[in-house]
Design brief:
Length: 455
């Protein structure tokens, strides 16, 4: 029977783990449950924001940052509830992994500076032109296939791992015809995301978001969590998740929080604001879900519209006809069937806050600009993107047993691991999920490479 040095389950962040391990001399098998992961994995569905603390792109612009600064931001956002080991491991590796992706995989990173994500004290998020995860993964995948770095099997799902004396010795996978095969390996990286597509697990661990629309991959069924628990792994933060309050009701696409961070605001179906939008898009999903109709309207202008076009999904949203335009706020209210007086009041409040003539009743300190005619409105609904809790891991990404010690050779990354967002949704910082997915996959690959070399 053929043996692999490493089997990677999940070809989102797991793809970079497979590439890195292959570069270090490992014989790698990469599997994915989807027949077309480039279009269906959670990484591809994101806006492609990757936080790196102290990167060369920051230094080029004179931005001072460090892993310690990033840790401080994470602790502030999570009220010091984030997993300490994962937080240090991922903030320490953030620059190395994304600079390696630029240098080795030719990813054309750009530092996002045109608006500022809530909770990040400095601009540290990297993305690519078009700002979409699919635009990051696609070229990497094409290059990896041209170099024949590893074996790849689509339509193949991880169903179990064989462990003897706390050491991985094989994995069990199932193909599209239902046949289960045992594959020998000493190392398994579980990068299969969380359990957002598993209603039973959501009801068990995350009732706050269980009935909200799911905007993630249908293949995120929680296999890694269930396999880990079956074999005695420690786990935690299962109530943590990334939500989003800006999914187009019309196009079912991501409108994006750039609309808010450039000066827009959200009103409910009565035309009234109902919270501080600058707190963050993740926690605002549950807040929006409490409003009548579980929906609202993002109010913008043409300048915000133009700035948001840097995001491919916003461009798709706009092209779908999802934006209503009017020359006055009063006309806009009539167009979207909300209270004219309420919407005018909210517009006047935002304008007064900008001019220093009023304090926002919800505590929003800044409306970045005064909206100018014509005015736009985009109907949005909340969504669950992916869960953020999972298996406890070491600084090397190796799974820890509930009873103590390690399951040697079993690694977890992304939504399969505990993550760095604390509990609930309000600890999420932009890019936390992608950093965990790519960071721990890269860390695990390096550790496997080191073990191969030592043997």
């Amino acid at each position: 029977m053929e043996k692999f040095d490493l089997v990677v389950a999940g070809a989102g962040g797991g793809l970079v783990g497979a590439i890195k391990a292959a570069q270090l001399g490992a014989k790698v098998l990469l599997i994915d449950a989807s027949p077309d992961f480039i279009n269906t994995c959670n990484t591809s569905m994101t806006s492609g924001m990757f936080p790196a603390s102290g990167s060369r792109w920051q230094k080029d612009l004179g931005i001072v940052d460090s892993p310690e600064n990033f840790v401080s931001d994470i602790n502030k956002k999570t009220n010091n509830q984030a997993d300490v080991v994962a937080t240090k491991a991922l903030t320490d590796i953030s620059v190395e992994v994304f600079e390696w992706m630029a240098d080795s995989l030719n990813v054309p990173w750009e530092l996002v500076t045109d608006f500022h994500y809530p909770g990040h004290s400095v601009d540290r998020c990297l993305s690519v032109p078009g700002r979409m995860g699919q635009l990051v993964l696609g070229p990497i995948w094409k290059d990896a296939m041209s170099k024949d770095l590893f074996e790849f099997r689509p339509n193949t799902r991880l169903v179990d791992v064989v462990i003897e004396d706390d050491q991985v010795v094989a994995v069990c996978v199932q193909n599209s015809t239902g046949i289960i095969e045992e594959i020998k390996t000493s190392n398994l990286l579980m990068a299969t995301n969380g359990y957002g597509a598993n209603q039973k697990l959501l009801l068990e661990h995350n009732t706050e978001i269980a009935y909200v629309h799911y905007q993630g991959s249908k293949y995120s069924k929680g296999e890694a969590l269930q396999i880990g628990i079956k074999h005695g792994a420690a786990y935690g933060y299962l109530d943590a998740y990334q939500g989003h309050a800006a999914i187009s009701s019309h196009a079912q696409t991501l409108v994006g929080w750039t609309t808010i961070m450039q000066g827009g605001f959200i009103v409910n179906m009565d035309g009234s604001r109902f919270g501080d939008e600058s707190a963050g898009y993740s926690e605002y999903a549950a807040i929006l879900n409490e409003e009548r109709g579980n929906a609202g309207w993002i109010i913008i202008d043409k300048e915000i519209d133009a700035g948001s076009m840097l995001f491919k999904e916003y461009e798709i949203t706009a092209a779908s006809g999802a934006i209503f335009w009017a020359e006055t706020i009063e006309e806009l209210a009539k167009l979207i069937s909300v209270s004219e007086s309420n919407l005018v009041t909210e517009f006047n409040n935002a304008t007064a806050v900008i001019k220093g003539e009023a304090t926002d009743r919800f505590g929003r300190d800044v409306f970045e600009k005064e909206l100018k005619a014509p005015f736009g409105a985009i109907k949005v609904r909340p969504a669950l993107f992916h869960t953020q809790g999972g298996l406890h891991v070491t600084q090397d990404g190796e799974v820890i047993k509930e009873s103590g010690g390690l399951i040697n050779g079993l690694f977890a990354a992304g939504g399969a691991a505990v993550g760095i967002s604390g509990h609930g949704s309000d600890g999420y910082l932009a890019g936390n999920g992608l950093l965990s997915a790519f960071g721990f996959a890269y860390i695990a690959a390096k550790e496997v490479g080191k073990r191969i070399k030592s043997n």
